Each structure stands twice: as C-alpha cells, then as structure tokens.
Amino acid sequence: MSLLTGQTAVITGGAQGLGLAIAEKFVSEGARVVLGDINPTATQSAAEHLGGPDVALATSCDVTRASDVETLVATAVERFGGLDIMVNNAGITRDATMRKMTEEQFDQVIAVHLKGTWNGVRAAAAVMREQKRGAIVNMSSISGKVGMIGQTNYSAAKAGIVGMTKAASKELAYLGVRVNAIQPGLIRSAMTEAMPQHIWDSKEAEVPLGRAGEPDEVAKVALFLASGMSSYMTGTVLEVTGGRHL
C-alpha cells in the first residue's frame, strides 16, 4: 500500500513550483488533492495534469482571505470526505532593500506568507481536531533562519512561520494533530532560475553538496512529514538546503 492511500490533502500555492511538485508526489502515493491558488487557469491546468476530478480539484484561493481558505478546506471535506493533510505553501516575493522597500511590499509578503499560513493552520485544525488526527506542513525558508539582504519582509515572514508552527504544534498535539515545517534553501525553479547567472553561481557555490536542490527533493520531505513515517514528530523544522547555512 502507498504511503497516502485513501488520504486527502489540501495544498495552497499548488498550481506550480513546489506546490505542484508536492501535489505530484502525494498523488503518486495514493492521495487525493485539492489545490488552492490565486491563478484559476493555472490551478485548473495543474488539477487536470494530476488526473482530473477523481484525484485532483482546483479551487481559486487567496490565502490572505480567511473565507477563501475555509472554502478550500470545506471543498476537500465535501468532495473527498475529510482532510488528512494541509500544506501551507502559497507565497510571493517583493524583494528590495529596506531603504527602498515600500510599506505595501512589506504588508503584501507578510499577509500572504504569515497570515496565509495562519489561515491555513486554523482552518485545517478546525476539521482535524474533530477527527482527532491530521498532519499540517508549513513552508518556511532558510531565509527565515539566516536572513537575506533585500528580504526583510520575506525573512521576517518565514521566521514567523517557524514560531507559529511550534506554537500550533503545542496547541494541537493532544488532539492527535501534528504540525511541522520545511525550510528549503536554493531550489531550482522558474523564480530562482530567473536570477542573473553570477548571482545564481555565487549562491550555488555556498552549497556543500555542490548543486541546487530540485522541487522533488522538497516534495519528498513534505511526504515524510505528511505520512505516518513521521508519526512521532511535531513542532519540528527540517532544512532542505544541501548543507547551506548550517
């Protein structure tokens, strides 16, 4: 039997990048998935790619709106009968040095990452506490551990997700609900590959394993945290960095 046979997962930011890679991994292990993303066309395309409505559903979702996230979770319960896994992955960047960053750029990143994750944890927990089981996986970043120039907004949000994960894990543990987080490092994606080559090369040179990570390598860690393989783990933060920033 596959690791997630018969289970239902909700993944925010699931139309592309790490979210889609996680969805692909979950479906390959027997899960049904509900994808939430702000881009309805891309989300529908991703759901069809994953196998269509018997396996994957697309839902338009702005994670900064609690009502959208609640609808996303309700869709999973109504269509697939429950919610076993919640992956809070949706994110944006609005990079600028602190001197040049606008208040709007700061607020946008905090809203999507930090409030969006809180909305996801809260909505999932409301269902999972009644079931007395469930796994929540929050996407942080190594930027939240070490801080990055030009990312005072993003680094703050990703550090906040770590604190939120630890606090929520303590609140929900007695109900059988686990909450963990992942901190990816330099992962190959459309966003990171858009960097100027000299910046990419300098970042890759900092990785002891000598290369960038692949989305599938983050997805495998999400699978571990979502499945029974991590049944005695909660409140943990796993770095997927190739050894960078130890």
Please explain how this structure is put together.
There is one protein chain. With 246 residues, the chain is an alpha/beta fold. The protein is 46% helix and 15% strand. A 7-stranded parallel sheet has the order 3-2-1-4-5-6-7, sandwiched between helices. The chain is globular. This is 3-oxoacyl-ACP reductase FabG. It holds the Pfam family adh_short_C2. Belongs to the short-chain dehydrogenases/reductases (SDR) family.
Fraction of residues in H or I helices = 40-55%
Uncertain runs: none
Number of strands: 7
| Class by alpha and beta content | alpha/beta
What is Rg? 17 Å
Largest sheet properties: 7 strands, parallel
Distance N to C terminus: 36 Å
The main sheet orders its strands as: 3-2-1-4-5-6-7
Strand content: 15-25%
Mean pLDDT: 96
CA-based shape: globular
Enzyme class: oxidoreductase
EC number: 1.1.1.100
InterPro entries: KR_dom (IPR057326), NAD(P)-bd_dom_sf (IPR036291), Sc_DH/Rdtase_CS (IPR020904), SDR_fam (IPR002347)
GO molecular function: 3-oxoacyl-[acyl-carrier-protein] reductase (NADPH) activity
Architecture blueprint of SSEs:
Blueprint: E1 8-12, H1 17-28, E2 32-37, H2 40-50, E3 56-60, H3 66-80, E4 85-88, H4 103-131, E5 134-139, H5 143-146, H6 152-172, E6 177-184, H7 197-205, H8 215-226, E7 237-240
Parallel strand pairs: 1-2, 1-4, 2-3, 4-5, 5-6, 6-7
